[in-house]
């Protein structure tokens, strides 16, 4: 049973968390599953609205997701300073097709006072063999010593709340 609809959930869903902390990724259907200063994970399902005419996920979407999750991690790791992507490289290994569930993992590989580098992997699971298939591998370099505007306070508060309570959703 799904639970009593008259009682609030003790824990928000990954979709609700993503909607609160990352509007652009939420619009794609992305859901965070782990949020920390060292690692970000999540998933999304390939939608027709962002496929090429050949029913393959558009490469720009993979790049958008890579920069989005790396930026979220860098924002937290910098002590909630504003971050700006300064370089993104992405290698496409295999295609993702309409309906594929994409798993995303971003790991911080460099942390300094001004620069962070994150590696982002995107993969799917082969439904026949159960094997993980690497789709893309990205490196995202971010400038991370910029002052954060006051309008970011609610985002900062939400990221702090979810990283402390729900580092594994």
From TrEMBL:
Q: Name one GO biological process term.
A: phylloquinone biosynthetic process
Membrane spanning residue stretches: none
Name of a matching Pfam family: 4HBT
What Gene Ontology terms describe where this protein resides (cellular component)? Answer: peroxisome
InterPro entries in alphabetical order: HotDog_dom_sf (IPR029069), PAAI_dom (IPR003736), Thioestr_dom (IPR006683)
Q: Which UniProt keywords apply?
A: Hydrolase
* Ranges where the Thioesterase domain occurs: 56-128
Name of the protein:
Thioesterase domain-containing protein
Q: Which organism is it from?
A: Dendrobium nobile
């Amino acid at each position: 049973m799904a639970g009593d609809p008259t009682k609030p959930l003790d824990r928000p869903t990954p979709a609700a968390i993503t909607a609160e902390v990352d509007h652009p990724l939420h619009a794609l259907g992305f859901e965070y599953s782990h949020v920390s200063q060292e690692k970000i994970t999540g998933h999304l399902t390939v939608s027709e609205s962002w496929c090429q005419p050949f029913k393959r996920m558009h490469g720009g979407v993979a790049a958008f997701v890579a920069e989005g999750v790396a930026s979220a991690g860098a924002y937290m790791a910098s002590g909630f300073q504003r971050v700006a992507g300064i370089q993104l490289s992405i290698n496409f290994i295999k295609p993702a097709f309409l309906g594929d569930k994409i798993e995303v993992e971003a790991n911080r590989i460099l942390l300094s006072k001004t620069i962070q580098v994150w590696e982002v992997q995107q993969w799917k699971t082969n439904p026949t063999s159960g094997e993980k298939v690497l789709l893309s591998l990205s490196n995202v370099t971010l400038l991370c010593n910029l002052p954060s505007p006051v309008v970011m306070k609610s985002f900062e508060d939400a990221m702090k709340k979810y990283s402390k309570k729900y580092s594994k959703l």
